Amino acid sequence: MKKCLTLLMCSMIIASLLAACSRNGEPVSGSGDQIILDFWTAWGPGSKEEEIGLKVIETFEKENPDIKVNVQVMTFDMLYDNIITSINAGNAPDISWGLGEWFSDLNHADALLDLTPYFHEWEEKDLIYDNVIEALTVNGKLKALPNYLGNRALLYNKDILHEAGLDGPPETWDELLAMGPIIKKKTGKYAFGISGTGVRAPQELIMYLAQNDLELAVQAEEGKFKNTWNENPDELERATEVFRFYNDLLEEGVIDPNGRSWGHQEEDTNFSLGQYAMVVNGTWMEDTIDEAGVIDNLGIAPPPKNASEATYLEISPYYIFKDTDHPEEAWELMKAMLGDEYQQGANLYKSPRIDVKGEGLWAEGYDGLTEIGAVFPQVSLGKITNDMTDAVGRVLLLEENPEKTASWLGEEINKSLEANGQLSEDAVRSK
Amino acid sequence: MRVSVEKDAESLSRKRRPTREVKAKQIAYMFVLPAFLFFLVIVAYPLVSVIWDSFHDKNLLNTGDGRFVGLANYVEVIRSEYFVQAFVNTGIWTIVSVAGEYILGIVAALALAQRIRGRAIFRGIIIIPWIVPVVVAGLTWTWMLTPDYGVLNSWLVKLGLLDEPYYFLGEPDTALLSIIIVNIWRSFPFYTITLLAALQSIPRDIYEAAALDGIGPVGRFFKITLPQLKSVSIVLIMIHIIWTAINFDFIWVMTEGGPVHSSETLPIMIYRFAMQELNIGLASALASLMLAFMIIGFMMYYLYIQRKSGNRGGM
Questions:
Q1: Is A270 in the B-facing interface, judged by CB distances under 8 Å?
Q2: Is residue A158 part of a domain?
Q3: Residue limits of the ABC transmembrane type-1 domain (chain B) (predicted)?
Q4: Alpha-carbon distance B132 to A332, whole Å?
Q5: Distance CA A366, CA A282 (A)
Q6: pLDDT of A273-286, one tens digit each?
């Protein structure tokens, strides 16, 4: 009897352990033929994205009673870690929202489904910006669809500029540098905000590089990449000028010295609270600024330029993973998220659809910026974005010579490309 | 004849039947087996796989690859621009944290061992920092230290100790030190309660005899209290050296190793290699190196103790 009981208990323990190890997304016994789609996202708690997203999913489930969408909300950091580990464990979700910076890594890991055939059959495909689709296409294959476009514009506090006796926002780097001391003297506030750490630091740096006609890595004929700054004195000088600009922002008192280490939260919060006058930022600031009650003082203009007009075009994509058992159903859900209800409700000023633009200050302020948007190259960015953040820190915190920093960053980018097998052959030969 | 054969068979089977001692051993092995399997799966397998991966080119982006590269990962880790800084930071982080925790812990334990009113309440309150989750403690201190709206900066400026708010976590010179102070604040209660328990077990008559011999409070502390706490202290310090050296969460929550790697320790570097650069080979090599450093450190200590006790025996 004792032996029977022991055996029974052991069987139960093993059965429960095995049940816990069962693969996500497979129908639970007794649930009939229902398809479960795992959808991972990083919606902010109580955000418009979450509110409208859940509504759209509810409608989708009603229209497709055989599909159940299993939504898991997590932070962006967790999302990235979970996606990478789940891909390696062979247990990726069906769909996930993610950052554009992950696109190349996920594609390089061969984890993304080729969406080209689905996209060609989609009746609304012409409503998505061409340059956005191009940025998500690798070797003729579409590997993701855009969720929103995080264009960056110059947001400025009209009251602070007025108090400083300035007519309008700066149009060039030089004008911005000249305005800094005036604003500080007349208002006691700093003129500009930057992000020196976190995910936004490299996003801002790539914009300034693009404004000086520079690319992080250029694509060679064989499809691989290399950074050419150290090969070309003119490019190195322009890269140096970008880092000198960061240095000047600090030296001229344009930015708060404490702002050298700001992340995106400090940058956003302090601007919303009217602590400084101007920032290059995205449309997600609408809610924050609205809550802070400074919306009436807000002006929006293109980012100050140098050699060229450019901004950072953040394409935040939806990824469908290659190992999904339900690619068609996942595609249908993605179409629903790109549909009118979600895009009008959650992405009014940042939609990748040409026909969703909204009206008023935000719509007008960001209009036309997609065309001058610079994107990250399609290379593995994990180390490169860290190096970009370090480069900003080296100039602002360690007071390193801007030319040395520019040269260092160029070298580090090529090292990272080489480590990931993405460095072009002629760059490898010339080493 | 038949009877004799049966007897032989019976004696043979009796010989083959396990003795009580063997049976007891078998049962003991059965009881140990789950723990052994647990050890194999949870401890040995990951450890061996980390060491194995450290000799291979394993990248999360190239799951099919994984060729043997010998010591290349170790060489790359050691040549890495931030390795020496992370190594030094790990040493500073560990030594200053453990020293600070011990000093604060023993001071608090001595205070709470005195017969003062409300002693039980103070003993209860002092444990609070230790039971606050690391993430909550880390985020709260981060907000308190923020220059723009942090309460500590506000107080320091109002008291005239600072001219203007200072970004303690945002400056390379102060980031690591700030996290160390927060870590000491969080961990010292564990020392306090452990040392307090040990203090209460020291017989009172030793102190009374010392007092009669004219030894003052400071002398009693160094000649009685500290020696009596020696064994507990060694265990506490050893455990905390390991816990602190491998700590990841506190630093990650507060600075992510920044700014510009100024508060980066080896565990943070391992995470960067693994989850940001997706290079498991490098991460495993650094993890193996860290394991080796710890083993060497403890071996040296063990040998020192052995030699010391040997010398004492020979005297």
A1: yes
A2: yes
A3: 87-301
A4: 45
A5: 9
A6: 899 999 999 988 88
Contact flag B169-A383 (C-beta cutoff 8 Å): no
Question: Residue A131 is part of which domain span?
Answer: 32-150+315-367
Q: Provide the token pair at B225.
A: 């209290």
- Between CA B277 and CA B271 the distance in angstroms is 9
Asked if the structure places residue A14 within a domain, the reply is no
Interface of A with B in 324-383 (CB under 8 A): 380, 382-383
**CA-based nearest residue in chain A for residue B276:** A382
Instruction: Evaluate whether A180 touches A259 at the Cβ level (below 8 Å).
Output: no
Are B62 and A260 in contact (CB < 8 Å)?
no
The reply to whether residue B275 touches residue A81, judged by beta carbons under 8 angstroms, is: yes
Are B258 and A261 inside 8 Å of each other by CB? yes
The Cα of A31 is separated from the nearest Cα of chain B by a number of Å equal to 34
- Contact at CB, A84 and B275, closer than 8 angstroms: yes
Q: Quick: pLDDT tens for B123-160.
A: 889 999 999 999 999 999 999 999 888 899 999 999 99
Percentage of chain B exceeding pLDDT 90: 70
Look at chain A and report how many structural domains it folds into: 2
Pick from B148, B258, B279: which is nearest to A275 by CB? B148
Q: What residue type is assigned to position A37 of the chain?
A: L
Per-residue pLDDT of A154-209, as tens digits, reads 999 999 999 999 999 999 999 999 999 999 999 999 999 999 988 899 999 999 99
Residue A24 lies in a domain: no
A212 and A159 together in one domain: yes
Q: What is the pLDDT of residue A52?
A: 93
